[in-house]
Amino acid sequence: MRELGRRHPELPVAGGFIELSPPPLGEAVAELVERGVRRFAAVPLMLVSAGHAKGDIPAALSREKERHPGISYTYGRPLGPHPALLRVLERRLAQAVDPSWDPSEVTVLLVGRGSTDPDANAEVFKAARLLWEGRGYGAVETAFVSLAKPDVPGGLDRCARLGARRVVVLPYFLFTGILPDRVRHQTEEWAAAHPETEVRSADVIGPEPELLDLVWERYEEAVKGDLRMNCDSCVYRIALPGFEDKVGLPQQPHFHPTTTATTTTGTITGMDTHTPTHTEAPGPDLRHHGDAEVRDDGSALVDLAVNVRADTPPAWLREHIAGSLGSLAAYPDGRAARAAVAARHGLPVERVLLTAGAAEAFVLLARALKVRRPVVVHPQFTEPEAALRTRGTRWTGCCCGRRTGSGWTRTPSRRTPTWW
């Protein structure tokens, strides 16, 4: 961002992130508003259009419009695959290989971030093919570090089965971070187990001059309204095999406390766009929670969320909580609890995740699991449906009983397998 501002001193420039790193998007927008900017061009520092591009970023911008009445914005399109970035990738390969190597004997494994969106994954395959064309490498294969197959070890296995003896793993990432580090770590582990194959790791794209030129190109497109987004294979528009349920789905992006954004508009880099922001589907209010809801005006509601266990908490738990009051100033250490749960269920500790109650687990499952037709069985909590709705996933509700004067009676003929 500093270099972009130095190149174009006449243009207000700010940058933020949508997650994991400061400053958040909101601070970037507020900074530009304080400098008098009212019209923004948001340029995504992203290589493909996936969940952040199609939902999170447009919604984040919409929130900023509500916070700062009178501002407007236009979106740029993702950065890659672009010839300028392919040239940088080629340079990264040249830096990684031995100059004495014959390129025709080198297999490249291009590793993308990975997504549950097949259109985004296809963009990585497209980049791999474009990288192979005319450059003389023996092959360019594709893998993903998360959410999609093949993963990095699987991609390396494929290279070996195809006869590769020299492999360069090339991360398809703009900058360093957790996921590129994971790619390198998994590459090193695989190489140690397969000494017969020579494996090297290349660097990420990084803040190269080509990247700055491309961001400026996307900015000018956005300002002029020249947005050439290809939606022909968008999973939210086209019924792709196995993803038919996503067509037209309402999409409610996640809230990210830390959010990225370029704009005489001011410029906000690191943001993305693809389609208009989806809104939450109409339906029953799923945000009821706790016994406070059934008091006064809520007396018509049935309390299914509390009093599951009588006389809680038990005496031993009250004593334990009271004994822990002296350590409240420290962050909680869950290692002992995690080890105990692992031992109780006969699992390795690394396969145990302790959550802040079932509600957090519902949200994590909705985000992490790729399911086509989740079924939520009632009567039960409202959190599963709320988590699925927020994720933009269509679900089926199944009532497993009927209400009688003495409570709920199970109806076996109506039972349906449930995801939860």
Question: Short description, anyone?
Answer:
With 420 residues, the chain is an alpha/beta fold. Helix content is 34%, strand content 13%.
The coarse overall form would be globular
Computed CA radius of gyration, to the nearest angstrom: 25 Å
Percent range of helical residues: 25-40%
The percentage of residues in β strands lies in 5-15%
Tell me what the structure shows.
The protein is of the alpha/beta class and 420 residues long. It contains 12 helices and 12 strands. The protein has helices at residues 2-7, 25-34, 51-67, 83-96, 118-132, 152-161, 178-193, 209-224, 315-323, 335-345, 358-368, 383-391; strands at 13-15, 39-43, 72-75, 107-112, 139-144, 166-171, 198-201, 266-269, 375-378, 396-399, 401-404, 407-410. The strands form 4 sheets. It has a 4-stranded parallel beta sheet, with helices on both faces. The longest helix is centred in the first third of the chain and has 17 residues, at 51-67.
Top keywords for this entry?
four-stranded parallel β-sheet, 34% helix, 12 helices, alpha/beta, disordered C terminus, 420 residues, single chain
Topology:
Blueprint: H1 2-7, E1 13-15, H2 25-34, E2 39-43, H3 51-67, E3 72-75, H4 83-96, E4 107-112, H5 118-132, E5 139-144, H6 152-161, E6 166-171, H7 178-193, E7 198-201, H8 209-224, E8 266-269, H9 315-323, H10 335-345, H11 358-368, E9 375-378, H12 383-391, E10 396-399, E11 401-404, E12 407-410
Parallel strand pairs: 1-8, 2-3, 2-8, 4-5, 4-6, 6-7, 9-10
Antiparallel strand pairs: 11-12
Helix pairs in contact: 11-12
